[in-house]
Write a structure and sequence with these properties.
The chain is α+β, with helices and mostly antiparallel strands. It has three helices and four strands; from the N terminus they run E-H-E-E-E-H-H. The chain has one domain. The strands form two sheets. The chain has a two-stranded parallel ribbon. The protein has a two-stranded antiparallel ribbon with strand order 3-4.
Length: 97
């Protein structure tokens, strides 16, 4: 698809508050972009959740790259990455160039 919105509603008010706080912190640090009104061609909105940390009530941020019928992970060709050793994102990004 040209664009795909797989985003989901937060499951609770606590998760919503956590996601909003985390978003604001990440935007202030320059790690998240400013909001925009609609997806541009080629963009995918990926589900992001706040899930409990092990043995804790605190939440941690996760992004589900495998969610949906047309997930971000499913759009990566195994043929194009077959020779890549997946040691980290830097090695993966270098291979894509």
């Amino acid at each position: 698809p040209t664009t795909l919105d797989s985003s989901e509603e937060p499951r609770s008010s606590a998760e919503l508050a956590f996601l909003e706080k985390t978003r604001d912190e990440e935007m202030s640090a320059g790690r998240f972009s400013d909001p925009f009104p609609h997806l541009l061609p080629g963009m995918h909105a990926i589900p992001t959740h706040g899930v409990p940390k092990p043995r804790s009530e605190k939440l941690r941020l996760i992004t589900d790259f495998s969610a949906g019928d047309v997930s971000r992970n499913s759009t990566i060709s195994r043929f194009d990455t077959n020779s890549t050793r997946m040691d980290g994102i830097r090695e993966f990004a270098d291979h894509l160039r």
